[in-house]
Amino acid sequence: MKRVLLIIGGGIAAYKCLDLIRRLGERGIAVRCVMTKAAQAFVTPLAVGAVSNARVATDLLDLEGEREIGHIRLARDADLVVVAPATADLLARMAQGHADDLATAVLLATRAPVLVAPAMNPAMWSHRATRRNVALLAADSVHVIGPNAGEMAEKGEAGVGRMAEVAELVARIETLLGAGAREGGFGFLAVSDTRTARPAACSLLLAGRHVLVTSGPTHEPIDPVRYIANRSSGKQGHAIAAAAHRLGARVTLVSGPVEIADPAGVEVRHVETAREMLAAVEAALPADVAIFAAAVADWRVAAPGNGKIKKAAGAPPPALELVENPDILRAIAKRGPRRPTLVIGFAAETQDVVAQAAAKRKAKGADWIVANDVSEASGVFGADRNRVHVLTADGVEDWPDLDKSEVADALLRRAGAFLSRDTV
Ligand SMILES: Cc1cc2nc3c(=O)[nH]c(=O)nc-3n(C[C@H](O)[C@H](O)[C@H](O)COP(=O)(O)O)c2cc1C
Known about the structure:
Elements: E1 3-8, H1 16-26, E2 30-35, H2 45-52, H3 63-68, H4 71-76, E3 80-86, H5 88-96, H6 102-109, E4 114-118, H7 122-126, H8 128-139, E5 143-144, E6 148-151, E7 158-162, H9 166-178, E8 210-215, E9 220-221, E10 227-228, H10 235-246, E11 250-255, E12 267-270, H11 274-284, E13 289-292, E14 299-301, E15 322-324, H12 328-333, E16 342-349, H13 353-364, E17 368-373, E18 385-386, E19 388-392, E20 395-398, E21 402-403, H14 404-419
Parallel strand pairs: 1-2, 1-3, 3-4, 4-5, 8-11, 8-13, 11-12, 13-16, 16-17
Antiparallel strand pairs: 6-7, 9-10, 14-15, 17-19, 18-21, 19-20
Helix pairs in contact: 1-2, 1-9, 5-8, 8-14, 10-14
Bound molecules: flavin mononucleotide (FMN).
Flavin mononucleotide (FMN) binds near residues 10, 13, 38, 119 and 124.
């Protein structure tokens, strides 16, 4: 019998948990409940205990409760932990790793997958603090369902903030239990992953999806032996392709000339120039997600020499006339038919990073822009770490300094959640 630990937060939607417990019980899933202090103001432990047919845990520092079934055992005995409703405050405490009440202590101690069902007023949901917390949780391998758009419990309020419906929750819980729980919970580092400090991939969030990624620099020939290039190493783009593969996607990586190995399990098209890259990208469509991490040269030499341009004694150096390269991000983001559902561009800037990236998002028609500072002082080019800002229609998220593979994981999880409209 599969075991779900249901953590009930203090929101109006708490009453829906009684139905959720019942529906899970009908499917042969055992449910134990933890209620926050605030949750008990909305539904009583007595009602929850009666429906779940088990003692409800409410206190961390309760001698009796701790002796009967301690917080570590509660955490350990679950195949899946579900937080519903997940209040804004509970999401914030989770994101910060608090453990000052039973709910958060259990969440920190569990190695089971965690699913949260946020429910709150639309203004609270769209607040940047909540967006940031949800992004952090997604990066920590937490599954997010909802919230949905619709009427709020408060009279006259509507928007995105309603907890996912019980039927949706049951379906997602069954999927997660079926996908084989115990793959690693919220923020839990599987032993094999501790070296890279990467959260364990805990679901095939992108199964059935096609993810197209560009990576590396382009080389624009001056003549058969010389070219114009840039300092992109391809590490971030290749990490993104690898992360998409780990999350179950079919991945096409269009790579400029790089010195790093092709990621395993990914179809790689090697190209040299911007025009070749665009052609390879076009040929790889359709895709659900297209992520343009390559540093494509803005210009190419108008008329590259057919033979090596020779230096002649006393002659002036050759003048190179440049022409503009195709704008791959713009071409794909603004295309009508076969436009990927989610188009993500990268903006490598050396000053006014966020402002430049915001302008780029608008001008190019990208859904999201991942912006980073590539000034010499930042040391990003060729490095293993990256500090990015993610610009979406909802605003700007400033991500902490992360390993490039962690940036990749977090970005792909967010993309997966976007595709299933788990988060807005
Ligand atoms: C009537 C009422 C309804 C509330 N509904 C919600 C809600 O739906 N979502 C939410 O995030 N907070 C809601 N709150 C605020 C939370 O109850 C409050 O932030 C509380 O500290 C959450 O505690 P918990 O996260 O430990 O359950 C509500 C408060 C009141 C008084």
